[in-house]
Write a sequence for this structure.
């Protein structure tokens, strides 16, 4: 769809619009634009400070995400989970034994 | 005695450990099982830190095969390898909710019970992510409903000719660090993240925070790759808009 938009824009010799640039920005930041689209994208950036600024703030937002409350699992949570699993497994095993003894008489 | 212990063949020792960690050892008679099981389960979850017991990380397929046979040690291995990562994912999706601990317990209990349903078509980690996200989303669904925030208000808008509606667009990428301390910025973003729809938040968490590939996220969330991309882009634009507004600029 974006490719079609760009092709239409190229055919009409019109500039790629800021809206199209915004639609493609995620591809650009993850380096997934093909060479032609990338060239067009960067061509637009050279003449559009608004899109440069938008791109910078978009990149800034994405770059901040990994640092949000990167929480390590507390020791107590690990211990509780282990105790929980142990309990559940024992219960399951007891159930299995009960079933086995009722079948074998 | 010491000499005798040293000459025990490695394979025999391995077998001993394996049989001690099985939930239902094949050779156990019903009468002797409860006592052994109690001892064995305690030993399995307690012995992980003993020196000399550390073995090379086995492949996913091998662990799953062992788990399918009810091998508790396999569950222990999976727990040790993945619990930290999954806790982080669940915590990021749930925000401040204290349900994260319960989600982790539910996930590993499901792993143990449903190991047989894991066909190996996806990676083990993808399956674990899927269980974690589903458990977290389930908790959110059952919990107190949050007011839905309208994305539109924070998404970029354009004039008919395709230019930005509000111009000039301000570059606040450096101002953010100057104006707010790192912790404050994280707080603002955390709040904005909590305002995303849970499924979109999950996409952001798995992509931008955990670094998973689109294909893996799609498999974990039962979405198409295309839907993942669309949701991720929209969510990022929303977060960007929230930061812009926080700094006194137009989201558009």
């Amino acid at each position: 769809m974006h490719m079609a938009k760009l092709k239409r824009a190229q055919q009409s010799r019109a500039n790629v619009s800021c809206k199209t640039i915004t639609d493609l920005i995620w591809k650009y930041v993850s380096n997934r634009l093909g060479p032609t689209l990338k060239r067009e994208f960067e061509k637009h950036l050279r003449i559009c400070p608004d899109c440069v600024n938008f791109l910078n703030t978009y990149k800034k937002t994405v770059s901040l995400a990994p640092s949000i409350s990167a929480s390590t699992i507390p020791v107590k949570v690990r211990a509780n989970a282990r105790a929980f699993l142990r309990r559940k497994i024992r219960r399951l095993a007891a159930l299995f034994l009960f079933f086995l003894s009722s079948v074998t008489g | 005695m010491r000499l005798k212990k040293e000459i025990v063949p490695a394979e025999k020792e391995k077998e001993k450990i394996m049989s001690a960690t099985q939930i239902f050892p094949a050779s156990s008679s019903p009468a002797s099982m409860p006592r052994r099981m109690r001892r064995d389960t305690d030993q399995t979850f307690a012995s992980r830190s003993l020196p000399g017991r550390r073995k090379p990380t086995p492949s996913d397929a091998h662990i799953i095969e062992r788990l399918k046979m009810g091998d508790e040690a396999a569950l222990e291995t999976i727990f040790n390898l993945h619990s930290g990562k999954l806790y982080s994912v669940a915590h990021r999706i749930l925000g401040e909710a204290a349900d994260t601990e319960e989600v982790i317990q539910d996930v590993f209990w499901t792993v143990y019970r449903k190991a047989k349903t894991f066909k190996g078509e996806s990676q083990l980690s993808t399956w674990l992510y899927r269980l974690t996200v589903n458990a977290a989303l389930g908790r959110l669904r059952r919990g107190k409903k949050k007011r839905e925030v309208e994305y539109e208000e924070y998404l970029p808008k354009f004039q008919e000719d395709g230019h930005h509606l509000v111009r000039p667009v301000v570059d606040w990428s450096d101002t953010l660090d100057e104006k707010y301390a790192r912790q404050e910025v994280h707080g603002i973003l955390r709040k904005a993240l909590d305002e995303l729809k849970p499924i979109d938040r999950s996409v952001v968490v798995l992509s931008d925070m955990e670094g998973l590939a689109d294909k893996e996220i799609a498999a974990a969330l039962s979405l198409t790759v295309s839907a993942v991309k669309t949701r991720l882009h929209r969510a990022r634009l929303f977060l960007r808009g929230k930061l812009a507004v926080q700094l006194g600029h137009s989201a558009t």
Observations:
- Residues 9-14 of chain A have pLDDT under 50 and may be disordered.
